[in-house]
Amino acid sequence: MPTPAPLPAVPVPVPPPASLAPALPAGNHAAGKLRLVAHNAPWPFNYTLEDSGPQLSLNRNLRLERLGSCGMFGNCLDFRQARLAESGHSGAVTWGRFNGGHARLRLLLMDLDNQLQQDRGIHYLAGIPTVTMPTRGMARYTLSGATAPTFGKGGTAPGSFSGQGLVQFGPGTGTRIALEGQLKFGNDQHYRMVTEGAGFDAQGRLNAIGSTNLRMTAPNTFTGQLQVNALGRSDNMKCGAGDCRADVNGAFFGQDAAQLGFGYTVSNPKYSGETDTIQGVAVMDRSAP
Fold it and tell me: 190-207, pLDDT tens digit by residue?
């Protein structure tokens, strides 16, 4: 009798976590306990998720209050007089954008006021990193919350963000990640950032990771770039059909990679002297594929 053909391998889905534990607690967190990304903050308080996070303080609503040590000889950024927009928290992560009032900067024994602009602001995301990553299976990530994307130079009203993710877990740094995000602004600017070669089903959901260049840089952090196309009638970034890129800095948070969070910066290397940048942060929750 002829030998039957082997059945195709079927990806093993990773069941969603029973909860988003551990929940992020309020209060003071020692340096290195949380991962943090901060965009548009004054020097030296711009952080990536690969950095060892600074000492930081969260109030009872998990709003970011301070970065660094506010003692007499410490360097500190105090947000208690700043207005917060698009803030949220879920499970092991908190995020937001400060877009008004002022942030008090204490640096080298100097006290400085950093005035915040409504159409720019400081984006942040902080959370408890995943300690033990899954090593097999596939998971889908759906948007939990995001800050409104803003142009680095201001002058354009903040936009909106929508997005999704698909992850194939692997041992060590073998995890592969696909992301897709849509950035829309009220002046008919619409940009789509997506992993190169990613596939989508008839409902527009990611179903193939493609030739991603998002790479794990540690057991729970990743970096890389997404291709960015312009879809709107206006294109101040001159992205066209793919001249722009989004530099992504991300991490997994909570138990069993229950959440995925990342910061992004959209730029146009071809026209860097003529165009702006777009920045924001986003958080996604894991579900079965």
Answer: 999 999 999 999 999 999
The C-alpha R_g of the chain, in whole angstroms, comes to 20
pLDDT in tens, 109-132: 777 777 788 888 899 999 999 999
The SS3 of residue 271 is: helix
CA–CA distance, 235 with 231 (Å, rounded to integer): 8
The reported pLDDT for the residue numbered 8 is 47
pLDDT digits (tens, 9 = 90+) for 205-215: 999 999 999 99
Which residue has 């942030």 as its token pair? 103
Q: Which residues contact 150 (CB under 8 A, 6 or more apart)?
A: 40, 97, 119, 120, 121, 123, 156, 158, 159, 278, 279, 280
Q: Concatenated DSSP letters for 240-256?
A: TTT-EEEEEEEEEESGG
| pTM of the shown model | 0.90
Which amino acid is residue 126, in one-letter code? Answer: A
Q: Residue 69 corresponds to which amino acid?
A: S
Local structure of residue 150 (DSSP, 8 states): E
Q: Please report, in angstroms and rounded to a whole number, the separation of the first and last CA atoms in the chain.
A: 38
- The per-residue pLDDT for range 64-103, each reduced to its tens digit, is 999 998 877 788 999 999 999 999 999 999 999 999 999 9
Cα separations (Å) of 237 from 43, 65, 122, 150?
26, 33, 21, 13
In degrees and rounded to multiples of 5, residue 50 shows phi and psi of -85, -20
Here the tokens at position 17 are 């976590």
Residues 6+ apart with CB under 8 A from 50: 217, 218, 221, 223, 249
**Cα 195 to Cα 102, 136, 162, 171, 188, distances in angstroms:** 36, 21, 15, 21, 23
User: At residue 103, what are phi and psi to the nearest 5 degrees?
Assistant: -105, 130
